[in-house]
Design a protein that fits this description.
The protein is an alpha/beta fold. The chain has a single domain (4-226), classed as NAD(P)-binding Rossmann-like Domain (Rossmann fold, 3-Layer(aba) Sandwich), CATH 3.40.50.720. 45% of the residues lie in helices and 16% in strands. Strands 3-2-1-4-5-6-7 form a 7-stranded parallel sheet, sandwiched between helices. Helix 1 (13-24) packs across helix 8 (201-211) and helix 2 (52-66) runs parallel beside helix 3 (89-117). It is globular, with a radius of gyration of 17 Å. The N and C termini lie far apart (36 Å).
């Protein structure tokens, strides 16, 4: 049955791959974007997840166009990599505000309709970096690690209402972010991945589509790594 799906940060990279996969499965899919051009063939709503009012307006637009959100995929995120000694407080808090507090804003708004319906799926996109850490990414890792505790707390809170909350934690993936790396940086990171390559966005999307599906109704509070083994054991 076609569901109303909202993917924050779904205009490019992993988020767009998730949107295309869920649309292909028959869902009605909306995405938020902050900058750039919106993707074709999807309901696209401009929204900065650091602004509560914009989040609320985005949900209102989606509700008007395709009904209450039944599946939320929280994918919007930023990075601002610096060594700790060079990182300002603004460098730290701005990443937390988007990657962690932004998910809080979206999830809180999504649960309004889900609680009334006594069903729903929330999928949070974390990162292998949040599980294993990475030099120069203390702010990013902290935000992504925080999502695990946040999602598992929600899974306990909302489970009795038929709402599942899960985390998908991608490793380094073939996106614009990874393409900005030098060949030397890329080679060094690939050496740490047991499968010896980067993930494809479609591989991450497949994991998200599964935990958001009816077949995954008894999975909640899980952290699913899609990282080629880079963070195994964490």
């Amino acid at each position: 049955m076609s569901r109303s799906v909202l993917i924050t940060g779904g205009s490019r990279g992993i988020g767009l791959a998730i949107a295309r996969a869920m649309q292909a499965a028959g869902d009605r899919v909306a995405v938020t974007y902050r900058t750039g051009e919106p993707p074709e063939g999807l309901l696209a709503v401009r929204c900065d997840v650091t602004d509560t009012d914009q989040v609320d307006l985005a949900f209102q637009r989606v509700e008007e166009e395709q009904g209450p959100v039944e599946v939320l995929v929280a994918c919007a995120g930023v990075a601002n990599d610096k060594l700790l000694m060079r990182m300002t407080e603004e460098d730290f808090t701005s990443v937390i505000d988007t990657n962690l507090t932004g998910v809080f804003r979206a999830a809180k708004r999504a649960t309004r309709g889900m609680l009334r319906a006594r069903s729903g799926r929330i999928v949070v996109i974390s990162s292998a970096v949040g599980l294993r850490g990475e030099a120069g990414q203390a702010n990013y890792a902290a935000s992504k690690a925080g999502l695990v505790g946040f999602a598992r707390s929600l899974a306990r809170e909302l489970g009795s209402r038929g709402i599942t909350v899960n985390v998908v934690a991608p490793g380094l993936t073939e996106t614009a972010m990874s393409q900005a790396l030098t060949e030397e940086q890329r080679a060094g990171l690939v050496e740490q991945i047991p499968l010896g390559r980067l993930a494809r966005p479609e591989e991450v999307a497949a994991a998200v589509a599964f935990v958001a599906s009816p077949e995954a109704a008894y999975i909640t509070g899980a952290v699913i790594p899609v990282d080629g083994g880079a963070a195994m054991g964490h």
